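Predict the assembly for these four chains.
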Amino acid sequence: MAGNSAGGRGVKSDETLFAIIEAVREADGIGVTELAANVNLAKSSVHKHLSTMRDHGFVVKRNGEYHLGLEFFSYGQYTRTTQDVYSAALPALEEIASETGESTWLMTHENGQVMYLDGRDPNDEINVNALVGSWEEMHANSGGKVILAHLRESEVNEIVERHGLSAKTDETITDRATLEEELERVRERGYALNLGEGLREMNAVAVPLISQESVEGALSVAGPTYRVKRERCEGELLDRLRAAADDIGLSLAY
Amino acid sequence: MAGNSAGGRGVKSDETLFAIIEAVREADGIGVTELAANVNLAKSSVHKHLSTMRDHGFVVKRNGEYHLGLEFFSYGQYTRTTQDVYSAALPALEEIASETGESTWLMTHENGQVMYLDGRDPNDEINVNALVGSWEEMHANSGGKVILAHLRESEVNEIVERHGLSAKTDETITDRATLEEELERVRERGYALNLGEGLREMNAVAVPLISQESVEGALSVAGPTYRVKRERCEGELLDRLRAAADDIGLSLAY
DNA sequence: CCGTTCGTTCTCCATCAGAGAACAGCAATC
DNA sequence: GATTGCTGTTCTCTGATGGAGAACGAACGG
């Protein structure tokens, strides 16, 4: 059905469980009957899965409707805080945001995508919690690009093949050759810019967070083009990010 | 095994999946063989589950070891931000923490336990991220008590039966009768105190967050007994909490 | 170069996940 | 207040599949 790469070596029950979880998430408040219809299973089967999940707190029933349970938050919080970059970079996040006055972000990559681990927006212009915890494609994002630039070429190829290079704006890099040039530029300079490639009217700079020769994440500052111009990205903001990245690199190495 | 309440109406594969997830969490970096031993399953079975999870990002392999994947963080973040109290109370959290100078907490309950949804500690004395996302028993916690006080008696009984009244310190309430007196007192006053009942040398006050007659959570301030004395709890801190709770109650009602 | 240990794949069988029907609980309708 | 029409839950049955165990292959170290 949805996931196919499992082939014959996966566990089908797990697949259905994940489908149910995803359907509960999408619905946010849904009954057994409707849920069963959404995942193409018998009511009884869905009910069994839900009961099991309920016993473990992954799902709760509020006014007759199933919702994801806080156990997910528990596991999620654990997962975030055990990312080495997270604890290493968290203090810097706060500082950079308040010093520069612009939104500041921490990202990691996994499976060819990046995720915002956390962010601060001193101006409260951006809903930080809407972005934190969400996946982004790497090619249209300063953090993603700076991470890509530090991966092996074979990995980059895999990622491009798997996720493509979709256009977010008309500035987005959409072909492999241009991407490679850009990544080369990033490697030379040691930082990545994003000039309206992800969102119109949004610029950003990112530096890599490196531990033992491998990229563990990226730190970036982003803001509207009228405040965050290219010169500022490559000047004040970059300086601040680089200083933080050096510190973080040290603390990652212990 | 671990979860038994499922009886015959649960899905056994899901139980094993959850066991594997939990084992991966506990180990934080573990191979198939060791994992299989920890959950008492054949290597091949564990491997199949891990493959399926990997396809969905719930698990990742880093240097030959399995870890929980950021997909958990994604679901967790979603779960937290869709809790109505969370977005309603988040701004207040920040404000109260900076105004009072003491650690401030937001909790909700689920399945007879409370969880810290978020917290702020202006003094950086407490590792906030270690508490956020963790479950706590309700009876030894100001937030837990104030929530308990607003539940139906049958619910309180269930909770006490299920989770007991374990002693955290020698001030902890450990019998049902004393708890009932305390809850009655909390209902009369409209707030709950915690005077060294959870941790020695730690006091706290909490107020309930109520929406349409039902408790959705609690807001609390906590600190070391030498700074956060009972008088301060029932004075300045309580005033601040009550003001915030009123606002939040309104915004919960839209 | 061989022995060990890991992860992965394969095959086979008893179990159990899933379907479907029946039952129960609740609301609204007449 | 009986009836209808929805739910969620429980039951029973059966074919598919999860789990065991063995075999394979890769990585490592002596």
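Residues 4 and 10 of chain B are 9 Å apart (CA to CA). The domain at 81-253 of chain B is CATH 3.30.450.40 (Beta-Lactamase).
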